[in-house]
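Weekly puzzle thread! Below is a chain. First person to post its structure in token form gets bragging rights.
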Amino acid sequence: DTVSPSTLQQEEVLLQGASVLESTSFNGTANITTVSTSLRVTGGHISQRVDKTAIVVTLSADQLNSIKENRDLCTSPRNCFVSLTNSTVEDIAGNNVHTIHPHTAQQVSLLTNDTTSPRLVRWNLNMNESILEVVFSESVDLSTVNPPAFTLQSTTNATNTQAGSITLSGGVALGSNGVTLRLRLIPFDMNSIKSLSSLATSRHNSYISFTNQAIHDMSGNLAAAISAQSGWSVSLYTQDSIHPQLLTYNLDLDR
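Winning reply:
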């Protein structure tokens, strides 16, 4: 039997066969590939189209993010191919699929681009290490982070007259592209936060909001905004336990 990579959608790989395929025989040895890199399709959910000539592999979140983080893989049909071994899948009669070698990998027929905004999943604040950690629903591009789009607020609704809030003025993104943004806050912002006794002294008065300009995903989609009227509570809060230290002092004996 022969199989061609008919479709790659946001979360699915569709393998189209020339005859009826046996979905339970799929062993996950297909590779999404390009000239310089490849990704083995493993795990995920396997299903079958009504006519049973196609197998749909729903990618796991980790695999989907691995594709998105690689700018050389499946950003267009020109760099999106599939190779597979003859043990990848069988037809209903038990015949193995024909091997598709990496050097003759088949190009995708239809590629559906990612148009979904990355959504906030949870966020953490470490006041000891000055780290704001924001976890998104998909991989984000750290080079696009915009710290002034983030606001820390003392209540879920920052428009409340009793609420305290600080909009960040800067920060440095740490690590590499992925679902987690780790932002090291600058001293000015940390001191501004600490100057407000009602803000970020515990998990009970630590909320976050941000505009859609906060960060982009790997496809350039803007983040799904969290409004100042519906701030999200912190998930993991680490209290400031570092004692202040004297840095300098001046002595004037001419008085």
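Puzzle host: Confirmed. Bonus trivia for everyone else. Residues 25 and 89 are 5 Å apart (CA to CA).
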